């Protein structure tokens, strides 16, 4: 991995953020923003033009690590093909989860990843509890949208993961 100075990323609005190390910034709320350049062939499990295969394999990989893939969508960043992901992972140091949003810009022999991470605060599970009270326990857990009708392990997919 190399520093942001060696990436094609320019013009980041870092208002309210403090640089903690090269390519890593935090804000007063605890958000972590980072930019990473990898001078290696990207490790995406499928090309961006095969979204079903890419989503399923990413969902399996995230679940195998104990997390849950909420969303994986191909798109563009400033005209460059990219993969947008939203992942939830259990916190290691205490109860709760962290949510990681990223854009991966894969190239033939390298990639750049722009990532933002937000951990739940002292009160955890509030969003999930409110949503469960609205839909009921029987309808709360859903088949993972990238798993062909089932769950994959890791953190389960549920109605509170939906965009709305």
Describe the overall structure:
The chain has about 160 residues and is of the alpha+beta class. The protein has one domain: 3-Layer(aba) Sandwich (Protein Transport Mog1p, Chain A), CATH 3.40.1000.10. It has three helices and seven strands; from the N terminus they run βββαββββαα. A hairpin with a 2-residue loop joins β1 and β2. The longest helix has 14 residues, at about 50-65. It is globular and about 45 Å long. The relative contact order is 0.17.
| Beta-strand fraction estimate | 25-35%
How many structural units, i.e. domains?
1
Our count of helices gives 3
Q: Cα distance, first to last residue?
A: 36 Å
Quick one: CATH class? Alpha Beta
CATH fold category name: Protein Transport Mog1p, Chain A
Biggest sheet details: 7 strands, antiparallel
Strand arrangement across the biggest beta sheet: 1-2-3-7-6-5-4
Shape: globular
The count of strands amounts to: 7
Percent range of helical residues = 10-25%
Question: Please, what is the average pLDDT?
Answer: 89
How would you name the CATH homologous superfamily? Mog1/PsbP, alpha/beta/alpha sandwich
The H/E string reads EEEHEEEEHH
Low-confidence stretches: 1-5
């Amino acid at each position: 991995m190399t520093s942001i100075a060696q990436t094609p990323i320019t013009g980041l609005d870092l208002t309210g953020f403090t640089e903690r190390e090269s390519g890593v910034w935090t804000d007063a709320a605890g958000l972590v923003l980072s930019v990473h350049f990898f001078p290696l062939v990207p490790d995406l499990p499928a090309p961006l033009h095969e979204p079903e295969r890419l989503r399923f394999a990413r969902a399996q990989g995230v679940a195998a690590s104990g997390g849950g893939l909420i969303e994986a969508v191909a798109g563009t960043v400033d005209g460059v093909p990219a993969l947008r992901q939203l992942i939830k992972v259990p916190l290691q140091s205490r109860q709760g989860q962290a949510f990681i949003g990223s854009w991966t810009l894969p190239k033939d022999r390298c990639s750049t990843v722009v990532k933002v991470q937000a951990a739940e605060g002292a009160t955890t599970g509030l969003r999930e509890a409110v949503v469960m009270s609205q839909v009921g326990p029987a309808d709360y857990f859903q088949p993972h949208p990238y798993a062909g009708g089932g769950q994959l392990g890791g953190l389960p997919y549920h109605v509170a993961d939906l965009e709305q």
